[in-house]
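FYI - complex with magnesium ion, inputs then prediction.
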Amino acid sequence: MSINDLFGTNVFSDAVMKERLPKETYKSLKRTIEMGEPLEKTTAEVIANAMKDWAIEKGATHYTHWFQPMTGKTAEKHDSFISLTPDGRATMEFSGKELIQGEPDASSFPNGGLRATFEARGYTAWDPTSPAFLKEDSAGVTLCIPTAFYSYTGEALDKKTPLLRSMESISKQAMRVLKLFGETSSKKVITTVGAEQEYFLVDKKYYQARKDLIFTGRTLFGAMPPKGQELDDHYFGSIKERIANFMRELDVELWKLGVSAKTKHNEVAPAQFEVAPIFSTTNIATDHNQLMMEIIQKVAMRHDLVCLLHEKPFAGVNGSGKHNNWSLATDDGINLLNPGKTPEENARFLLFLSIIIAAVDEYAPLLRLSAANPGNDHRLGANEAPPAIISVFLGDKLTSIINQIEAGDLNIEKQVELLEVGVSTLPKLPKDSTDRNRTSPFAFTGNRFEFRMCPSSASIAGPNIVLNTIVSEYLRRVADELEKADDFNESLKKVMVRLIKDHKKIIFDGDGYSDDWIKEAARRGLPNLSSTVEAYTYFDKPEAVELFERHGVFTKGEIVSRKEIVFEEYAKIINIEGLTMSQMVKKQIIPACINYMTDVAESISKIKGVCPSVDVSVQEELVNKISKLLFDVRVKVADLNKAIEEAKGISNIESMAFAYREKVFPAMAELRKPCDELEKIVSEEAWPYPTYDELLFRV
Ligand code: ADP
Ligand code: MG
């Protein structure tokens, strides 16, 4: 089957709607989608009916409101289309009301105290800007309706609602700025996103033999095999048959859902891969990334593989992230981060650029926290991912232009020349080089910014909510100022010079992995937030609350509840990791080592019994070494258990999360050391679970 026949076959797409909806209904829905106009009840009725007929023709029996609770995962509650007639027959029904609103049992989703104080119910509401789709699995075919999830009082209980709000805000403010440039044809500004997704694949039989992978998604122990990623031979290497089959099927499944999976290749680490879609509007890109994560896991299972989305499944090789490529575009297709061809276009581009630089500088802690999760604490600042310090990469040419603007040398004519030479030659850097660009957390890549800190397992809603809102804020400030200006050009110049002067400390084109940068960043006063818990303390600072409230993205209550959820989640995750470690040590590692030691000891006495003069110092040394290490293990597992008990006893959720970070987390690292040493000296047959060798090199 060709990709044309496959692509989007399971999507209630624009084309399907055009074909199946009456003209007037289609037009009215388009006004809702494009201009945010409210949807008439009668229109919803007609759409629901068309959607149902389409879904049933394709085998669907159920529908679900598909939503994204604050866990960052997706949730659904399936209802069947079946409805009974008075004479006892069954018909398939789906009303406009059922399309527009649902009321899932929300009590099991985290709400950070939001619902308890108001009302226990949660509602889902159709997001008509993200198309409905069909999910096929062993349970049958289900019509999925992308929805927002909120409480009785309208407070957002999900990730989609604030994302949609932030998109509205940035559109409003960007339109104000565009108007100042005489832009009249565009009706709104959208943010575009393409998220590159990294992941690992391991063999299911090895996965199932490791409690740590099952309970925590990452290995808590594991000595490095003789070969790691140092040869770089996995990167862009030829894809093995089994993986190739998996990828072929993955593409097909994603294409059916209208997810434009475009690239596939091996990543830096062994057993690591990447898939990237063609960019789309932010909320669709976010929905698609959620679907992508789900489908990768599902398809992997069919090939007896398990997909690990964790940020750091293995120590010693690179972890996984998500690159959030982000730009602004008008509804009529102008990419506002594309350097233009005329002086006006260039001035506009440079203004947007300066605005983004300023926003990222002032609100760096918020951007950092948007990429914080427990898994990412193993990556950021660990010389593989970007450092935990936010900075902006522009490249030589653009930096030199920015410097000239700052110096007051803003000759627009000259800018055009420079830009033509400059931006077109901005290096499109090949992935495999150890280029400095890769070390930057926020890099300009020719016509967009690439935010490279995002965690591989998390929703990209958070990072985009923050990006949209902080840029919105600076667009607002600039619009406020320029709308009042008598001489637009003069004021524009002044604004740009000031933005750059005040914020150029965030621009850094050097090596983000170097120790010098850490010192330099401290000198510049840039924040270096090394952990999730630390980053999250910035969420409810007065300036953050003011920002989010001003743009209608989060209320104070929504912020406080989200902060609480993150701290609670952090504590829970580290608690599970700590307990899993402790259990593996007691039930697997110690018994295996004792058995092995006994075998060796028995062999010593057997040999001695037969031939007393034989040298058994090798065996004796081994027994001694194991015994010493086991002693160390015993001490450190006790330390870990004590740290867990103490953390558990803390009642304030924030202090508890900090205790898990500062006491439990390091205790785990300490315990891991002697265990990995033991793994190196105990025989392969005696070791109680599969090793890195099997996990990384036998897929
Ligand atoms: P690289 O590995 O060099 O970063 P990829 O091709 O793997 O490049 O990924 C680039 C991503 O950026 C793709 O998802 C692509 O669709 C996306 N992208 C390209 N242009 C834009 C844009 N204007 N806005 C948002 N995303 C974009
Ligand atoms: Mg990239």
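The first strand starts at residue 60 and ends at 66. The pocket of magnesium ion (ligand 2) is lined by residues 196, 323, 450 (CB under 6 Å).
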